[in-house]
Amino acid sequence: MRRFNTLFVVALCSLFLAACGNLGSSSGTSGTTTSKGTQLTGQAASGDYQSVIKNGRYVTSKSRGVNVSQNDNQYNLKSFESGLLTVSKKVYSPSKYIFEEGQYLSTNTVQNWLARKSKSNPTGLNPVNNGKTGANTRNPIYLQQMEEQDYMKQNGKKLTLSGVTIGLGLNSIDYYQKQNYGATYETHISNATIQREGRQIANQVLARLRKKAALRNVPITIALYKQASDDSLVGGNFFSYSVNRGSSTSVGSWKAISEKNYVYPTTSSSSSTGNSNDESSFENFKTQIQNYFPNLSGVTAQAHYVDHQLSGMNVSITTQFYSETEIISFTQYLQQAAQKYLPSGAPIDITVKSAEGVQSFLSRDQGEKKFTSHVFDSY
Amino acid sequence: MRRFNTLFVVALCSLFLAACGNLGSSSGTSGTTTSKGTQLTGQAASGDYQSVIKNGRYVTSKSRGVNVSQNDNQYNLKSFESGLLTVSKKVYSPSKYIFEEGQYLSTNTVQNWLARKSKSNPTGLNPVNNGKTGANTRNPIYLQQMEEQDYMKQNGKKLTLSGVTIGLGLNSIDYYQKQNYGATYETHISNATIQREGRQIANQVLARLRKKAALRNVPITIALYKQASDDSLVGGNFFSYSVNRGSSTSVGSWKAISEKNYVYPTTSSSSSTGNSNDESSFENFKTQIQNYFPNLSGVTAQAHYVDHQLSGMNVSITTQFYSETEIISFTQYLQQAAQKYLPSGAPIDITVKSAEGVQSFLSRDQGEKKFTSHVFDSY
């Protein structure tokens, strides 16, 4: 399945790359004075990076689309990419640096690196196939996805590459087939092994990147991400990162990242919870709105913890609505109920969906008390 | 098809009604002093109605779900219901009145009224079946959907029914089959006929409502809506309304409503446009963002005109994204481009979708200059 997806995406990508042939130079250091040259997108919110526009076009990643095909669970994709931005913000301040999609690792390179090492693929970062099929005797695929992000500094009208972040997504469970189209088996990988293999792969990646002239003297941050299982309703999490100053060819030291994601309500099978107070707050909210509205079919939340503190929540409410006025009234009610019952302090998004798509949404930013709301209307 | 839908929804509704048996009295005049009694949802935005909560539950319409089954084009459903709220706001100010879903017309009543008049259905508001099947010789179905909205005034802790609005949705095209499961034919209905039939039906509805004790002395507003065709990408529009003071049993006078909806870009088949300046603004915006982002698959807008002035626009952008960073950058860019290219003055919503659903959205309220944006993230 993954292989077919990959081929499909490669085909798509070559189309796009062909279509984008007039993007001009993709070198990291570039800058012109004409309005047709390099521009920035502007910031949507303080704390976001501006990004680079070249000749009126967005500069897409050189390995665009590879990660889409590498993730059977789409939560791992979004979580990995936003998480990598969060790590980058610790190192490259959005007020000083400008974001550009990765320009140094091509689709081909990334695909080779993500594959197993073999005679035909000497650059593979995953272990050779040892021919065994037992869950604990085979060599699992450790590295599932990787992403490069480039960070530029503006100097007058010139943008200079001033930092690179590499994210490495490591499997906690490697899914595999013993035969093509056969049953799916799982190799579970311990946290200790994930860390050991991740660090070892990071060392190799750093050494390889230093061989590229443009990256020889640029700070390179490498962050390690533990992929969630394929049936998870929330993505995995970054657990470690390392900032490597220009010219260093092996990773010196690692810093721990304490981030965890949970799904509320917790099911009996996944009894782990981030914080029982937050969970009961959510349960109260859920009970309250289910009493209010006759047939809510799903009320769940993703809760994100940093250093054991709730740092964000995405609530998803699914139901069938029978009129626009029901959606409006329900959204008004949610505004009250969310403020009253959901944990205060952390930013919270609430999305209200029906079979026809998103109907309304509410949001509260960090430090605010009230929720703002929007009902998606139609003329 | 419609019949099966109807049956299905009736079945669903009876389930809900059963489940809501403990809603207590649904009489329009009620009010208690306990916190378990009648409450209000609060306003999400000034200019919105508060709505009624009874015993912690939302008071759903007595004919809930009928309109869902009456519309093969869902744009007619949303547009009809929000449009009816807009008409009501002209008559019953949201600062003085509180909204309640219709409590006087039951599912059964509405279904009978929406059907053809016949021996077994003497209350049908659509003409008898004359047995003919020619597009212009048969009697078409004029009345496609209807909705009741109740408006209450608060007096101390008591809510009193103080106004009712009835919307009548009238077909511009009646779709019919000559045989069950056969080909679909169309009877086109002229604007003059829509108005004549609509007024005549309104008269009957008013007279019938006056026979209900609770509605005898309440102002009743009736509004006429022209349904869009089933293949339209935008809903129909209200074109006329009448405010009838308490106890009047026939409609006195009608006021015109000048509202029109258009889809941009206009297709060659639907060459009508609201305003060519607005359309070229939208075309510029579209060209600009399609240059910026490599593979936007759809950029369309619903434009809403009141008295020939643009009074709102919903822009919908569909594409495949290959990373969260692409969505963030694209949204930032849209914020600039929308402010620069889209018509100023009118409120505008922009929704960015992929196959996985809504990815981000931007919005500018009436009188504002900048767009606010939100990217739907996932942990």
Automatic annotation (TrEMBL), chains A, B:
Residues 1-21 form the signal peptide. InterPro entries: CamS. Gene3D superfamilies: sex pheromone staph- cam373 precursor domain (3.10.570.10). Keywords: Signal. It comes from the Bacteria. The keyword Signal applies. Pfam families: CamS (PF07537). PROSITE patterns: PROKAR_LIPOPROTEIN (PS51257). This is CamS family sex pheromone protein. It comes from Secundilactobacillus folii.
